[in-house]
Amino acid sequence: xxxxxxxxxxxxxxxxxxxxxxxxxxxxxxxxxxxxxxxxxxxxxxxxxxxxxxxxxxxxxxxxxxxxxxxxxxxxxxxxxxxxxxxxxxxxxxxxxxxxxxxxxxxxxxxxxxxxxxxxxxxxxxxxxxxxxxxxxxxxxxxxxxxxxxxxxxxxxxxxxxxxxxxxxxxxxxxxxxxxxxxxxxxxxxxxxxxxxxxxxxxxxxxxxxxxxxxxxxxxxxxxxx
Length: 226
Known about the structure:
Helices cover 22% and strands 43% of the residues. By secondary structure, the protein is an alpha/beta fold. It folds into two domains: 7-114 and 183-224, Vaccinia Virus protein VP39 (Rossmann fold, 3-Layer(aba) Sandwich); 117-181. Strands 3-2-1-4-5-11-10 form a seven-stranded mixed sheet. Strands 6-7-8-9 form a four-stranded antiparallel sheet. α4 (88-98) links the parallel β4 and β5 (102-113). α4 (88-98) packs across α6 (185-194).
């Protein structure tokens, strides 16, 4: 990262961002509430001693007390994890918590869906089904759809385990039904300002695949108001 200095990877998951930051020479705190995620990352780092020396893995929430460190030059919320915040109140509360963890000249980075990419969503119809194998070797079915409401677009997904079926092949294990808002820069900006941040940079054309095809995202770089 251009800021240098220590970095905080919030919701590190498999550690893709933390590993990249450490490879760039930064000291990284990788944070996740998932025991499975932090265990996998720690096990992976066991075979990478040079990177392991730069990464501290913690199973902790950014809201925990005592807080995790401070004085970070860069804090990152990877992928489009910002979509896990169901409403503006939750998002603003999160940003309020991140702000005091940054150094005076530190920045917070998160990815959002590009507003121009929503037209691609709007052109799709129906539910898309995808099957995949999870980290535990279980085959799962994902039913996903993008929906539009006056309050804004959201991503709806439902997971099933097809192992063991009734007659007719109906899935018997329903794992989760999730509704996630699709945050864009425009939707995020009022909450950014409320939490005492300003958008200083927008880095476009980061491609990802959401199971329905390629979707363009952008990285928002936020700095505390002075």
